[in-house]
Amino acid sequence: MKQTLSFTLNHKPYTIEADPCDRFLDVLRNDLSLRGTKEGCGVGECGACTIVINSNAVTSCLVLAGQADGADIMTVEGLSETEIGSVLQRCFIENGAVQCGFCTPGMLMSAYALLQHNPNPTREEIKEAIAGNLCRCTGYVPIVNSIEAAVKSLQS
Ligand code: FES
Ligand code: FES
Asked: By alpha-carbon position, which residue is closest to atom 2 of ligand 2?
């Protein structure tokens, strides 16, 4: 049964009618037409659906719509409006971290959550932060390099 759910999404207030047991990934993609968040495995293992809820990176295929009620949510669509997000996006492009691009929204969101909590992470901490995000194309090195480049850029 549908209920009224209210949350902040990409800095804007939303009130929607949704079944609280729906996957929040489906609410984003189907109800709100925000298709930047991707579905890969659907079972919490690939990270393609990663979004940020209350400053934490989470896999939205495992989040129920009811859990979004009252939350502060960021998806890849909101990244360019933030300094960290726009620098990350630029550094991913400049460092060849985007190949097929399927993993990219989730990678960006994990990196965004990391840099919000830790503005000066080590390379190991960067690798840990994206450990739940699978990429078939890049071998991960350009992605880690991109996040390191973003850290440097944000500090300069
Ligand atoms: S689609 Fe959610 S973790 Fe793979
Ligand atoms: S760029 Fe293709 S899966 Fe990562």
From this structure: 100
- Which residue range(s) make up the domain with 123? 78-155
Query: pLDDT tens for residues 113-143?
Result: 999 999 999 999 999 999 999 999 999 999 9
Q: What is the token pair recorded at 70?
A: 């009252």
Which of 29, 61, 107 best tests ligand 1's pocket when mutated (most atoms within 8 Å of CB)? Answer: 61
**pLDDT score of 101:** 98
Cα(8) to centroid of ligand 2, in Å? 29
75 contacts 82 by C-beta, under 8 angstroms: no
pLDDT digits (tens, 9 = 90+) for 63-87: 999 999 999 999 999 999 999 999 9
- The angle subtended at Cα 116 by Cα 111 and Cα 121, nearest 5°, is 65
Instruction: Say yes or no: 71 and 7 in one domain.
Output: yes
For residue 98, give the ligand 2 atom closest to its CA.
1
Do residue 151 and residue 83 come from a single domain? yes
Quote the CA–CA distance of 122 and 128 in Å, as a whole number: 10
Same structural domain, 49 and 118? no
Q: Is the pTM for the entire model greater than 0.90?
A: yes
Give the phi and the psi of residue 15 in degrees, each rounded to 5.
Answer: -130, 120
